[in-house]
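Figure S7 source data.
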Amino acid sequence: MTRVICVIGGKGGVGKTTITSNLASALADFGQKVIAVDTNLTTPNLGLHFGVHLAPFTLHDILKGKSKLKDSIYIHPNGVNVLPASMSIDDLEGVDVSRLHEITFSLKGKYDFILLDGAAGLGREAVSGIMAADEILIVTNPDLPSVADALKTIKLAERLGKKIIGVVVNRIRGKDYELTKEEVEEMTGYPVIAMIPEDKNVSKAIFSKTPVVNYSPNSPAALEIKKLACSLLGIPFVERRVPRGFLLFEKLIRWALRK
Ligand code: ADP
Ligand code: MG
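Tokens for the predicted magnesium ion complex:
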């Protein structure tokens, strides 16, 4: 059965796209068939995380009836299928985001997981993402503004009858002014199911247009995201470090292929 999960959280910049691209990649590593969909039609950037930001056909074309679903899906070398949105401002005209649920409906049955990269705020895009999903994964940072926005998203998702899987706290720096796991749980009313540290490898990975779980699989952020994937799959996490020699070889290949 396909699980349709919207990764969302209210506030912009908390790491929704980073978690979507990396959770998709980690799930694919565990043998799952996964598609990541950018539901952020006005300011999309999921394509950048996978290096398909210049895709000839996008979600915008499908929503406008200009392209077929299969022509707008790209396969990343790590196995994840990606349905990017267009980066061009010209493509915004005539797009009806409320038709998003039709897209997820037609993808159901073809994948184990459909991950929707949710938009910030609680406008039409964000609401359409929530409505198109069955389950919601909340992403926040360990600070009050992020958790306050996450709480609003939770309330809306509850009103729409969606199942909330739990909360991912991202960009933890271990400072004493950060909210603790228990505080986030108390404020949101849901369990914190992942704690992702601040990790410079995340920015390096985005620069190289490769998810950090592939770019730097032994990095602290990658390991926590793999743990999150295991918890969604209900399997125990066993830390398997990728040998250093293999990583250096991959780095060399990336360097040789760099654009
Ligand atoms: P959102 O989709 O919620 O707007 P993004 O996933 O685009 O957020 O992340 C915003 C920025 O934060 C990105 O530039 C990314 O490099 C950075 N970022 C996200 N998660 C982490 C992390 N765990 N450690 C370091 N930087 C991160
Ligand atoms: Mg985003």
